Prior knowledge:
- This protein is mainly alpha-helical and 53 residues long.
- The protein has a domain at 29-53.
- 81% of the residues lie in helices and 0% in strands.
Amino acid sequence: MMNRRENACRNETKRLEQIKFIMEHWDELPERIQGRFEGTILTASDFINQKTG
Length: 53
């Protein structure tokens, strides 16, 4: 049986692969989607910095 840590690592790896794919194909994305993605990343980054800072 897989424990929570193993499952979290697998999910994290999957997310990193997805982000890498997005970055490799960034120019192919419509500008609207690029803007939404950038906004989401900035929001997450601000939240993490606020929590750790």
